[in-house]
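can u do me a favor
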């Protein structure tokens, strides 16, 4: 069982504790009732946890399932009642503050209203107490948490045996992988071969880790003095594992080891160490689930310098890293997958499906995603087809059922049981997070930022001391990746996942679990299922069938907490007033959301997360202040220039994502919980910087100064000094200087790691305070000119690893190039981009000793004509690995250009590290065309008309965009 049966328990208990506070002025009797509920629910939560820890091969009794489902629904209903009370007491429309007679009447009516609300919550609590009493009595009557569970079907260990004893014909695609693994294990004849070597095979469930480890074990075990292959599994019995290991290592001497019931774990470890002390052994430890199990086992595997080898297998990347060298097992190639599929169905990998089944087989294999377990499972179903049934129709039906969680055949159940081990091993906090991914279609690249904020809106992310909710969500993502439950698609420079995907077989499992527990109800685009009586989460996708429209009309939405609409047809969506307790509303793909719809949404007082497409909205309603519990506001493609002043009342707002360059109202500094503003904040007066400096929780910031003068400098530094949680910052506009006399920011954003400065004309100097930012690792900066003082500041930034400098003008009185040498430390710099038309710098011996990548962009006329050569000292950068040089040829002659090319090539050839060199030439006309393409693309993204031609233009412009941020700036307008 999982967090899905726990329901709202995680967020409910703190709310109950909060409700007893004096500020809510509840009657003493009601507070007593709440304290009773709190005690009872804690007891129920403990019982649920006990049930959830039942062995995976022993599912809970039907009575247990019914009871846990009832507790879950009860927790949801109770939380809804509490939230309704909170909304009526704390939220909603603000009472009148006028001192007139009308104001007096309003306040008096408000007090009467609040008295009635408190009376109603008392009635609700009394009713729920009665329900809890019934549930508790049922638990006692049936001894729910004491019901012995019984094995159902084949156990996981039984299913694992099939991986150990697969027929040779089923080992398609493993030969090459086994040879690769053997290369990592076999002796090389050197000193290193005497050391113990541990290789850990890690990968998604069903990829064939056990099969591969067993194949390598069978090939190599004859080269060692002794060997053993033991499985740890999910709930390891360490005594039995050690006894099994001893018996395999020496069957004669340890024939009766299992009879040694009195041997402790410590004795068994000592016995193993003594036996292995002088032997060259080869041991496979299969299916390790956590680091503690491995730590215990490795005590027994003595390091004896006899050249012993160990293979471990695991689904968890963290465990693999702890064990030894990581061998990431990849899915089968499409060719190998096809061979395995054909072998299983037709008895030969060379025999292909007939023409009428070829397309269906390709679709099925693509959905299997190269996972051998999935291929064998589906192929077994297809090969066991009833002869009377039409083969083509059957294959098509099997394909459509894949990933839906609806197929109930024995083979698919066995596959789910193997995959479900990973799911049940998840901590309870991660289970609803994983099930929530059913919201997205198969093969969809899920944006991590959006996913985490949705989790937060749903209440899945639990508070942790010292971390924001978003940071906790990032930890959840990392755990799911490490456990092979989601697959990273795109990573950022710090190896954090930006987008992810769910494998179709995991999607099938989570769909099945979600349907079973009524976690998420989906309508449209899939095989129809009967909706539960109480729908908690609803996803609507392409509702175009008459039956689906009719079904939607019969549904009760009074308990729906989350509504996601993936259909563009907004008119098919039920009236939003029928969703009284909605917390998450995602209408981002819905067109035709009008002004009156937005006004209606502003009366959905429970909302935590709101995302809409505002292309048809012309007015931002002042009623937005009603959404007092809103944490995330995402409004795409909105053409309104200024937000209403009432938005400053959203005290719980953490993320604001609206159209770029929208004006925030006066007093926006009251949004104390704000952590992220996606889009650029227009700064039109120094007083706005005071508001900005009040947002002390901000993590990211982008500002645009329209009319910069000296009066902005000190207020901006004061603003930065207050933003102590800032991690990334972009500054653009008419900036000329940033108070360079200031040595440090106090207290300042000490965790700031990224600054992007896009000054239209370039700033006068690098601010000295930058060198006080200990974690600043990435800096893009545009300078009017580059001098020694600038290099001193840049070179002393302690963690700077990625630096981009654009220099606007040459230094008038400079007759020789500026020398970059040892005096400028640049102690962490590994990547440097210099766009400097005049290229007034030269690298001296010992400069930038950790630099690996260098990108130079300059004009032949500007750089060479002034100094007479292209000698930039590239031969002196000792750690250099890659050099890219773009030469703007403008009006230079071919002879001049070739001379520059030769000189650069010669310098690179002289470099001791022999770095690779890429040379590019660009004319002014080519640059102009790229700029024109980018401008068109930006407009297309803004008006929603982006199509194939848009992406073709960007592809042409891409080389220039990588290094020229001025050229790329229009794309920042893309929402």
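np, heres the sequence
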């Amino acid at each position: 069982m999982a967090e899905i049966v726990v329901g709202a328990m995680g967020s409910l208990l703190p709310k109950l504790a909060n409700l007893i506070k004096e500020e809510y002025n509840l009657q003493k009797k009601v507070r007593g009732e709440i304290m009773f509920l709190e005690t009872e629910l804690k007891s129920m939560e403990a019982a649920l946890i006990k049930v959830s820890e039942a062995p995976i091969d022993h599912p809970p009794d039907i009575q247990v399932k019914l009871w846990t489902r009832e507790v879950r629904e009860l927790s949801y209903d109770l939380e809804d009642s509490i939230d309704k009370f909170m909304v009526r007491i704390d939220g909603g429309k603000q009472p009148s503050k006028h001192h007139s007679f009308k104001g007096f009447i309003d306040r008096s009516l408000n007090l009467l209203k609040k008295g009635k609300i408190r009376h109603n919550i008392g009635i609700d609590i009394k009713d729920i107490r009665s329900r809890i009493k019934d549930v508790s009595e049922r638990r006692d009557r049936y001894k729910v948490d004491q019901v012995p569970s019984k094995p159902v079907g084949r156990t996981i260990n039984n299913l694992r045996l099939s991986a150990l004893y697969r027929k040779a014909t089923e080992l398609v695609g493993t030969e090459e992988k086994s040879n690769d693994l053997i290369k990592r294990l076999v002796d090389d004849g050197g000193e290193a071969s005497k050391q113990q070597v541990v290789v850990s095979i890690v990968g998604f469930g069903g990829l064939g880790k056990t099969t591969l480890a067993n194949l390598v074990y069978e090939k190599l075990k004859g080269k060692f003095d002794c060997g053993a292959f033991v499985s740890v599994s999910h709930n390891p019995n360490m005594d039995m594992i050690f006894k099994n290991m001893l018996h395999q290592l020496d069957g004669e001497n340890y024939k009766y080891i299992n009879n040694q019931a009195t041997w402790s774990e410590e004795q068994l470890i000592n016995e193993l160490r003594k036996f292995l002390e002088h032997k060259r052994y080869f041991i496979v430890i299969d299916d390790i689930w956590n680091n503690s199990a491995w730590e215990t086992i490795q005590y027994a595997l003595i390091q004896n310098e006899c050249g012993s080898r160990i293979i471990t297998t695991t689904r968890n990347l963290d465990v693999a890293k702890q064990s030894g060298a990581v061998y990431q097992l990849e899915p089968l190639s499409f060719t190998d997958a096809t061979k395995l599929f054909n072998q299983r169905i037709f008895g030969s990998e060379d025999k292909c499906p007939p023409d009428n089944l070829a397309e269906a087989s390709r679709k099925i294999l693509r959905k299997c995603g190269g996972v051998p377990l999935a291929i064998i499972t589906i192929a077994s179903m297809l090969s066991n087809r009833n002869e009377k049934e039409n083969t083509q129709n059957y294959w098509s039906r099997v394909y459509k059922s894949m990933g839906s969680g609806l197929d109930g055949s024995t083979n698919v159940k066995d596959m789910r049981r193997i995959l479900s081990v990973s799911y049940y091993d998840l901590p309870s906090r991660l289970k609803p997070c994983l099930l929530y991914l059913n919201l997205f279609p198969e093969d969809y690249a899920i944006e991590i930022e959006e996913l985490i904020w949705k989790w937060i809106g749903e209440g899945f992310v639990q508070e942790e001391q010292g971390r924001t909710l978003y940071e906790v969500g990032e930890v959840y993502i990392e755990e799911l990746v490490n456990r092979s439950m989601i697959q990273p698609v795109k990573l950022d420079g710090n190896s954090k996942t930006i987008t992810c995907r769910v494998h179709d077989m995991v999607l099938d499992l989570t769909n099945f679990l979600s349907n079973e527990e009524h976690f998420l109800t989906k309508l449209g685009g899939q095989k129809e299922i009967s909706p539960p009586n109480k729908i908690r989460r609803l996803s609507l996708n392409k509702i175009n069938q008459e039956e689906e429209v009719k079904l939607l009309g019969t549904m009760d939405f009074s308990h729906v907490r989350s509504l996601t609409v993936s259909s563009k047809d907004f008119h098919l969506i039920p009236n939003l007033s029928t969703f009284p307790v909605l917390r998450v509303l995602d209408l981002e793909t819905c067109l035709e959301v009008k002004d009156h719809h937005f006004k209606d949404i502003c009366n959905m007082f429970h909302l935590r997360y709101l995302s809409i497409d505002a292309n048809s909205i012309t007015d931002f309603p002042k009623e937005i202040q009603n959404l007092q519990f809103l944490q995330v506001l995402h409004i795409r493609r909105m053409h309104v220039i200024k937000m209403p002043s009432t938005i400053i009342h959203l005290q719980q707002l953490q993320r604001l994502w609206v159209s770029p360059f929208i004006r925030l109202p006066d007093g926006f500094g009251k949004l104390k919980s704000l952590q992220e503003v996606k889009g650029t904040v227009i700064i039109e007066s120094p007083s706005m910087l005071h508001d900005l400096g009040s947002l002390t929780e901000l993590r990211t910031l982008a500002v645009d100064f329209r009319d910069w003068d000296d009066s902005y400098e000190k207020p901006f530094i004061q603003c930065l000094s207050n933003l102590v949680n800032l991690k990334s910052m972009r500054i653009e506009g008419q900036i000329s200087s940033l108070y360079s006399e200031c040595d440090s920011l106090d207290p300042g954003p000490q965790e700031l790691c990224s600054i992007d400065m896009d000054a239209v004309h370039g700033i006068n100097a690098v601010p000295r305070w930058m060198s006080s930012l200990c974690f600043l690792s990435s800096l893009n900066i545009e300078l009017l000119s580059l001098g020694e003082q600038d290099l001193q500041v840049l070179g002393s930034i302690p963690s700077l690893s990625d630096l981009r400098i654009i220099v606007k003008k040459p230094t008038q009185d400079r007759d020789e190039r500026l020398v970059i040498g040892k005096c400028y430390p640049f102690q962490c710099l590994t990547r440097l981009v210099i766009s400097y038309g005049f290229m007034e710098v030269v690298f001296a011996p010992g400069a930038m000793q950790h630099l690996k990548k260098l990108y130079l962009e300059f004009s032949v006329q500007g750089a060479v004509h002034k100094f007479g050569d292209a000698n930039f000292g590239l031969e002196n950068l000792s750690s250099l690995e890659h050099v890219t040089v773009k030469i703007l040829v403008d009006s230079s002659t071919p002879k001049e250009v070739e001379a520059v090319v030769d000189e650069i090539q010669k310098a690179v050839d002289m470099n001791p590290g022999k770095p690779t060199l890429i040379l590019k030439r660009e004319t002014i006309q080519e640059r102009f065309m790229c700029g024109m393409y980018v401008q068109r693309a930006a407009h297309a993204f803004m008006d929603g008309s982006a199509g194939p031609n848009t992406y073709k233009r960007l592809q042409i412009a891409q080389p220039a965009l990588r290094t020229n941020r001025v050229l790329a700036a229009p794309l920042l307008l893309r929402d």
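Residues 101-142 form the longest helix (42 residues). hope that helps!!
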